[in-house]
Specification:
312 residues, mainly alpha, 15 helices, 68% helix, 1% strand, globular
């Protein structure tokens, strides 16, 4: 699976390269029609936060779920670029002193360390807003109804009922807003809800986007959503295990911070052995969800295994 010559890794790298080129073009210094100016420091910070980093796994899921239906690659890349802007904004804001207070991201200084807090906040704001600019463009899909559906789905995945709400629950689990330790008792169900919102929502959207772009059947969309849900849960468990057991040099940021902050994770609730067993069950669930697509979904199955097996 982690063989450098793996067809899966070649596909993942190809999407990453295409997304890099597209984001570089979209985040150029020249203003678009309707924009008065693109302040140099702000566009530099937005580019710093979104270019030259990450595996681009979320756009990969958009591209590969779209490929199940022969959606034009450029349409999928546009939707993937929009999703990556939301993801990168979330990393910029998560790293801020008021949130996780991280100095490193992908082995490089975080945006607020490279620039300053105010610039980092605005860069995150800019990337979030820009995501919906991208989705609204005709290059994303010729049918405005499809574009509206993508906008709504990404807004729901990103906002109060998705990633932003999950971040609030995560801060609450650290005890930011309570005095009593008894109020910090999070059940497995509580943690699963938190993680399904904070991390899982964008990964589910990545899989839903392919079905939206293709105007897929309700049954096909449901299968992709089941796959995305399983991959989202697996991604978070693997991330929690990396924080506990990972090598900071490989992970690209400080590890051990979840336990130090008292974060609620499935690893802390279930214990490492049970969490690792759950990870395997989720990979199986992801594979089963894709059964209706047969061999054409092979690369997505490898994607689920990659999530569970990653070391960085």
């Amino acid at each position: 699976m982690n063989d450098e010559n793996s067809p899966f890794l070649a596909r993942l790298d190809a999407v990453a390269a295409d997304i890099e080129v597209l984001l570089d073009k979209l985040l150029a210094a020249t203003p678009e029609p309707g924009e008065l100016s693109r302040p140099a420091r702000l566009i530099e910070a937005m580019r710093y936060a979104s270019l030259n980093g990450g595996k681009r796994f979320r756009p990969f899921l958009v591209v590969e779920t779209s490929a199940l239906f022969a959606v034009p690659r450029q349409n999928a890349l546009m939707a993937g670029a929009a999703l990556e802007c939301v993801h990168c904004y979330s990393l910029v804001h998560d790293d801020l002193p008021a949130m996780d207070n991280d100095d490193l991201r992908r082995g490089q200084p975080t945006a607020h360390k490279k620039f300053d807090e105010a610039t980092a906040i605005l860069a995150g704001d800019g990337l979030l807003t820009f995501a919906f600019d991208i989705l609204s463009r005709q290059q994303t899909h010729a049918d405005p109804r499809v574009r509206i559906e993508l906008v709504m789905a990404l807004a729901r995945a990103s906002g109060v009922g998705g990633m932003a709400g999950g971040q609030m629950l995560d801060l609450a689990a650290e005890g930011r807003f309570v005095q009593s330790r008894a109020a910090l008792e999070f059940s497995e169900k509580d943690v699963r809800t938190l993680q399904a919102m904070k991390t899982g929502a964008l990964l589910r959207f990545a899989c839903q986007a392919g079905g939206i772009l293709a105007a897929a059947s309700p049954e096909q969309r449901a299968a992709l959503e089941r796959y995305g849900s399983a991959v989202g849960q697996a991604f978070q468990i693997a991330d929690d295990l990396l924080d506990l057991e990972g090598d900071p040099a490989l992970v690209g940021k400080q590890t051990g911070k979840d336990a130090a902050a008292g974060k609620a994770t499935l690893v802390s609730v279930l214990g490492v052995p049970v969490a690792k067993a759950r990870l395997k069950e989720l990979v199986t669930a992801a594979e089963q969800a894709l059964a209706p697509f047969g061999s054409s979904a092979a690369v997505l199955i490898e994607g689920a295994r990659f999530v569970a097996d990653r070391h960085a």
